[in-house]
Amino acid sequence: MQAIRSPLRRVALQARLPVVRPRVARPFSTAPEAKSNTTLYLGIAAAVLAGGGYWAYTSSSDTAREVGTVAKSATQAAKAATNFVPSRADYQKVYNRIAETLDEAGEYDDGSYGPVLVRLAWHSSGTYDKETGTGGSNYATMRFEPEALHGANNGLNVARGIMEKIKQEFPWISYGDLWTLGGVAAIQEMQGPKIPWRPGRIDGFAKDATPDGRLPDATQGQDHLRKIFYRMGFNDQEIVALSGAHALGRCHTDRSGFEGPWTFSPTTFTHDYFKLLFDEKWVWRKWSGPKQLADKKTGTLMMLPTDYVLIQDKSFKKYAKAYADNQDLFFKDFSAAFARLLELGVPTAQFVSSEPWELKTLDEQKK
């Protein structure tokens, strides 16, 4: 590793490249950040190529992580300098690799990485604050501490590790595009609706990381849900639609403290989450963990306090009932809300397409 680092340092000194140092705090601004990132990436890309090595970092400090981000983006910048412009077909290849990875989970959870990839896409986007314009999927700041260690992100190191392997195969894609595309692929491959998506997110730095408390707290009620989702710009109908993502996956005591799946088919995207809310009798589970509900009939399913309020709050309930009665309506509304969630915090000018794409599933490509 020292042999790799030394040539890079010499080249950097000879080229008088800028040294990455902690920056003085300044107002949040996306456009200047994108410009300065590009200049820095191109400079360091030249040094990396000239030095014959790739900067690898091992320090856990924010500065080292920022250096690592710049270095990893060097490959992306170098390809751009040689007129490499990813096409829709290139993004379809990334989608396909993600889709193939879903079934490589083995004994992990219910045999699929799909639910945890949806959660990664959701949590990396749901930090957006419309008042300050901060957060969202643009900078993929969950790569940095302390955001990576926020309680709501427990266990997402698994998903980030999966995505890191794919990033090595396709180094030109940004983390924000990769993570959100992972959520799209997971939903679509688990028999969910098509999710319109388009690339254009850029990689940020540790200074762009969001404060804790921006993601939903499952122990809370309807007032908390509205505070979290209204901050992102969503309304009551969209809150309920997005909650339908709980059709997938399960909770873990070593992560959230809660335990169990929401549905009997946690790797298939359906409207069963809403049907079960109305069709089952839910009772408070008697155990040493946090407050959660269990279905009285089997005791194997669970609902969180934030789930249960969807049938207690009058406004939420009418949408939840509509989705319980009509899966097509749920799919349509979820697709629209989830697609918007994945674009929060990304300036429109950054997107490579004026209209989102609908990428094909693996099955569709076989026809």
From TrEMBL:
It is an enzyme of class 1 (oxidoreductase). Keywords: Heme, Iron, Metal-binding, Mitochondrion, Oxidoreductase, Peroxidase, Transit peptide. One of its GO terms (biological process) is hydrogen peroxide catabolic process. It comes from the Eukaryota. GO terms for molecular function: cytochrome-c peroxidase activity; heme binding; metal ion binding. Pfam families: peroxidase (PF00141). Its EC number is 1.11.1.-. GO terms for cellular component: mitochondrial intermembrane space; mitochondrial matrix. The keyword Oxidoreductase applies. It is found in: Mitochondrion intermembrane space; Mitochondrion matrix. SUPFAM superfamilies: Heme-dependent peroxidases. Its main location: mitochondrion. Gene3D superfamilies: 1.10.520.10, Peroxidase, domain 2 (1.10.420.10). It catalyses: 2 Fe(II)-[cytochrome c] + H2O2 + 2 H(+) = 2 Fe(III)-[cytochrome c] + 2 H2O. Residues 173-367 form the Plant heme peroxidase family profile domain. The keyword Iron applies. Belongs to the peroxidase family. Cytochrome c peroxidase subfamily. PANTHER family: CYTOCHROME C PEROXIDASE, MITOCHONDRIAL (PTHR31356:SF58), THYLAKOID LUMENAL 29 KDA PROTEIN, CHLOROPLASTIC-RELATED (PTHR31356). Destroys radicals which are normally produced within the cells and which are toxic to biological systems. This is Peroxidase.
